[in-house]
Write a structure and sequence with these properties.
Mean pLDDT: 78
Shape: rod-shaped
Strand content: 25-35%
CATH topology of the largest domain: Immunoglobulin-like
Number of helices: 2
Number of domains: 2
Oligomer: single chain
Structural class: alpha+beta
CATH architecture of the largest domain: Sandwich
Order of helices and strands: HHEEEEEEEE
Low-confidence stretches: none
């Protein structure tokens, strides 16, 4: 017959391995690294999806902003074209007005010159009337000079001749006596130089004759006086000093 100690051990054995033994749950063990990898991949996937959505929204906003800037640029270009056309019209109007003013000024100057010439002609005729009885007389009615360029002087002359039966016309030559100062010394120039029969200085007139030309002075010369002489052969017929 078994002892009480053996009986107690048998009861414990039956409790562990018999029908009344406690249930045992068998579970498979996985390392935590295997669980972390899917989580990390899932988080990366979610982040990538979020980033793509954000980029798409940002691209849409940038596209809208770009379209707005393009429209604004187009409007500014249209305004600039309008301003340019308006400025061009105003500039053309100003240019036309200036050209018109210059034309009017030129016409006024021409009329003033013609008026002065007519006055000179009237004075000439008035001077000729008292001398109607003096036939065959030639005179220098007007003599003017003007310095155009450095060293270049332009002269203008008006000759008048009162013909008679014995002298229906006058033939002679013009001589200019130019007095100037150079390096502190007074000097004189006779024109024409060399050729006395120069066509520019030959005179042939029946009533009136206008003559003009240009002569040169040495560099640094200061013009003092110009005298015009009318010669017939070697005989002095008339002379006049120019108005500076």
């Amino acid at each position: 017959m078994p002892t009480p100690a053996v009986t107690l051990r048998l009861r414990r054995f039956r409790r562990r391995f018999g029908i009344t033994a406690p249930k045992v749950v068998v579970r498979t063990h996985f390392p935590w690294q295997w669980l972390a990898i899917p989580v990390v991949l899932l988080l990366l996937l979610v982040g990538a999806i979020g980033w793509l959505i954000a980029q798409r929204n940002e691209a849409g906003a940038l596209a809208q902003e770009k379209e707005g800037l393009r429209q604004l640029l187009q409007e500014q270009r249209e305004e600039l074209n309008i301003l340019r056309s308006t400025a061009g019209t105003g500039k053309n109007a100003v240019s036309i007005e200036r050209a018109t003013q210059q034309q009017l000024l030129g016409q006024i100057q021409n009329l003033e010159a013609e008026n002065a010439a007519l006055r000179e002609d009237v004075l000439l005729f008035e001077r000729l009337i008292p001398a109607a009885g003096e036939g065959g007389v030639v005179r220098v009615e007007n003599f003017r000079i003007a310095q155009e360029l450095p060293g270049k002087v332009r002269y203008r002359l008006l000759f008048a001749f009162q013909p008679d039966r014995q002298s229906p016309d006058f033939r002679g030559r013009l001589q200019l006596v130019v007095s100037y100062k150079l390096s502190g010394k007074n000097q004189r120039l006779l024109l024409p130089e060399g050729r006395v029969d120069s066509p520019e200085f030959q005179l042939e007139l029946k009533h009136f004759l206008r003559r003009e030309g240009v002569f040169a002075l040495p560099d640094g010369a200061i013009l003092q006086q110009v005298e015009a002489r009318v010669l017939q052969g070697d005989t002095l017929k008339a002379k006049r000093v120019a108005q500076l």
